Predict the 3D structure of the following.
Amino acid sequence: MIIDCGTCAVAGLACADCVVSVLLGEPATGTLPVTPSPESTDVIPENVALLPVTHVDDEHAAALGVLAASGLVPPLRLVPRSEAS
């Protein structure tokens, strides 16, 4: 499972009650510490949320589900933008 917080439709709104924030901490805000290469067409805004991308294997995802169902950690609140529309 890949959890890409940058594609989450509720990023910022649901971060405080999401298992990713519990495990990795709240996303920071600031300026990205990268400069696009001259051949890049990407535009990087000056102030953006630095949102994590997390790789979780199936066994760990199942374990997080059990912990969330038991109330020990909050559930994954990821809502991909394509599903939110």
